[in-house]
Queue: 3 jobs
Job 1
Amino acid sequence: MPAPVQFTFEMVPHEEGNNLKSVRPPVIPAGRLQIDRGLLVISSIEFEGRRDEGKDVFFGTNFPEPVTINLDTGETSHELTFDIPQGVYNRIEIILEIGGDNGIPMVLEGEIVKGQTDNIPLRFEYNLRDRIRIRAEPGEQHNSIVLRKDKMSVATISVDAGEVFRFISFQSPPGGLDSLQITEGTVLISSQLNTGLFNNMASRLERSFRVIFD
């Protein structure tokens, strides 16, 4: 029997040096990163599941139009709810195909804080179509993922901006502000601009995704 599963999305913001509250008054280091906004575009979802009993489950859905997701609010352009065979799953993998015919597959945005009020906008554009494979995890206090026909399950896909920006800092040379290409007042990191940073961050993009079934 099918079990209803709703897919939702969220973002884990990144704030470099978020222990600043321990200092009175707080000292704001020049070049501190704050990443708190994001956009994701997906054109398909694939599900690969292995159950303790019953056949393994494999299916994929190609959307008529790419689904746009506002990562900081969780809003999606289309509701993503699927009927998936019920059962106890010991392994689930979700594959997202990101990108579409138009638009940028993934964007993360924030600011480089230079002082109390003097900030520089920053925008990371992953402008390559790609497939993101995510190993699903059960919710808290569960050892396996159980999908039931009489209960709506929620699969929350989160993007951890801190993982993407893990080794990125502009607080001191050689990664300081002077090393950046700034376009129209914005630091744009893409496959065409600030490419060294882009390659560094793109290599960790898939690891920034998690999916938890509750």
Job 2
Amino acid sequence: MHASSSSSETTARTPALGFRRTLANGWHHFLTITRHKALVMRHCFCVGLYKQGLLHDLSKYSPSEFMTGVRFYTGTHSPNAESRHQTGISRAWLHHKGRNKHHFEYWIDMSLDGDHRLVGFRMPYRYVAEMFCDRLAASKIYRGAAYDPGHPWQYYHTGIEGSPYLHPKTHEELSRLLIMLRDEGEAATFAWLKRELRRRKRARNHYS
């Protein structure tokens, strides 16, 4: 019953786009996600994550995600956020987070305590690093000329920090990178992160 109600509300709130607007939105959304992907790829390459950089966010080009981007494109913020605002849900995000390991939501599973709670498990560090690159690139794309190195930390601190589904160690590791970016700048953070990824790879330990 609830699903049926949501479906009817969605139809009422989001009338079909005209042909020209659909084409324009599609083109601009394609440019936005491609610019973002290219920037994340460049950041990943800077720290040695070549495969992750190449494969980053490919699911955004799938029909399940791309059409939401077309329908809810604004140019100022994520179409997923706009979809939630207008319809109460983003089906594209539900599709995306289950296929991309650099999102902490990918790592939500049943607790090992046997109480059937949903909890966030710790992310392997290479995906924490990709998440950092992703957040940095997103800030640059959406802030444009107003971007500053403190914005990724500010956005995380006010929006996501404290989520019950974010593992404490993942929070600690991501926070360290975002604060380093804010205080020491991009070049110093990339250099440190590249060394840290190498150290963990040599130790064959993706966590500590």
Job 3
Amino acid sequence: MKILVVGANGQIGKQVVQLLRENSEYSVRAFLRSEQQVQQLTHLGIEAVIGNLEGTVEEIAETMNGCDAVIFTAGSGGHTGADKTLLIDLDGAVKVMEAAEKVGATRFIMVSALQAHNRNNWNEKIKPYYVAKHYADRTLIQSNLNYTIIRPGGLLNEPGTGKVTIGENLDRGFISREDVAKTIVTVLNN
């Protein structure tokens, strides 16, 4: 299975790329923002392409030709402001979904946010982020893609425990980025 990892230079994306690379069942292509990032990964023997989530659906589709699945781990980052959050976390995600349908990719994994589906539980300090994740998730649900939405709690940079809780309405909690990455790879074929 050929997989495009969007956000492959992020903290979760890097770990997903490494896990996929270690499994002979998968072939990975990293979707990155800069030539420098591409060079770093190609130096390690990883196929990498420059992509722009603010580009057109057609431009994004060109980066995923031949891919069977897409993993969306990208995000605008916590310090970019509401405008970038909407452009990357919402519109960028939707364009990646449209591109996936256009090229015939059938599997889509979305990294969202805990309680993104429940407006009553949104953190007011990062409300634009929740709005973006909420509507990106809804668009994915309404698409023709076979999808899984992963809504992790607070992300930690600690070693994984290998224990995750899966459910629709979980209380706030924390999870290591390593465990999120392993969960993504585990659900890929489900």
